[in-house]
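Feature request disguised as a bug: please show the residue count (438) next to non-specific serine/threonine protein kinase in the output. Example input:
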Amino acid sequence: MSCFPCCTSQQKLNRKSLKKSIKEYREEKNLASFANISFKTDGENKRFITEEIAKFGKGNITSKVFSYRELCVATQNFHPSNMIGEGGFGRVYKGHLKATNQVVAVKQLDRNGFQGNREFLVEVLILSLLHHPNLVNLVGYCAEGEQRILVYEYMANGSLEDHLLELTPDTKPLDWQTRMKIAEGAAKGLEYLHEEADPPVIYRDFKASNILLDENFNPKLSDFGLAKLGPTGDRTHVSTRVMGTYGYCAPEYASTGQLTTKSDVYSFGVVFLEMITGRRVIDYSKPSQEQNLVIWAQPLLRDRRKFVQMADPVLEENYPVKGLYQALAVAAMCLQEEADTRPLISDVVTAIEFLARKKVEVDEPLSTKVTPPQSGDISREHNKSNDCDNNDHNNKDNHNDNEYNNNNNDDEKKEKEKDKKDEDDDDDDDDDGINKKL
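Example output, currently without the count:
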């Protein structure tokens, strides 16, 4: 899909430059050198990273290069009180850049962690060359000495995981519409990587902790250290060692190492199921048969009558029932065992856009359904009042009133039958619509 207004001509030039650079890079067989960065001395490392960024980026890298001293000042020497998170790359600190009066998130590489120079370089390149409202903005980086530090825009509401899976007593649960809005934005971020970037980029680490939220709960994908360039030409996949987070990896990737954009679609399905159910993908605190979210959900997804059992309890039934059914249908399609049977991420975006835009009034939450007074009930109350005020009416008038009420009741019965038929037809139309979109 090409419906992103933010894709400016400059971004198109960047993508063309990226494609050309990759081709030249492969011809020179320099991609293999990524793995050898860690064997160089500190001085060589710094020069190597600078040269690689300059060569690979072809002058399109606009991210600022920070000195280690600047970032020490911004984070008060990486004081523990400023730490706002920790991941595979390292710890993340809140900082303030005095020169630009900007609040930022500063991610410092853990030299004993799982990710290193290769992941650092990949993230700098991808976030410098690709830009979208649903990708986090890279402000700059530091590659001074042994330091590998990334500087991002600050996201006020932390990660989706903070608001979904690690609720504190003072954290307000996400409502249904906010969840659909977050799912829509995250899917659009993947869509941009898969279908707008050239060559396509496979994210490979889609999970709740990597979806950051701004002050308005708009989502942005972060942590691109494990991203891979997707297959081009006649190739159907890229082969690579299995990386990522247990539970989120697609089965074909986990078993064979063959990676495609459909691998990201599976991971999206896992996170979307987490958003619907409020359950972690792997939770050892639950009974053994419920510890794996996907395995627990599979039999329930086959029985429409059990769909409501899968809704997050903290929603307290404040969700549109038809919306729940349709959201679970989207998740089930993404979680298909065979990669070829999963939808494209653009189809997923279309379906979730429908769910995010849908007004709750169309299908009210279970807890707010109230039967409105019917026209026949109002007529009966009105006639009862008239009888009290006109006790001197003769039997003939009373007979006429009864006949009038009986006619009203017959009309009411017919009207209810018609409304029920229309409602059933609407339900069928909605289900057909969501299926067609997938």
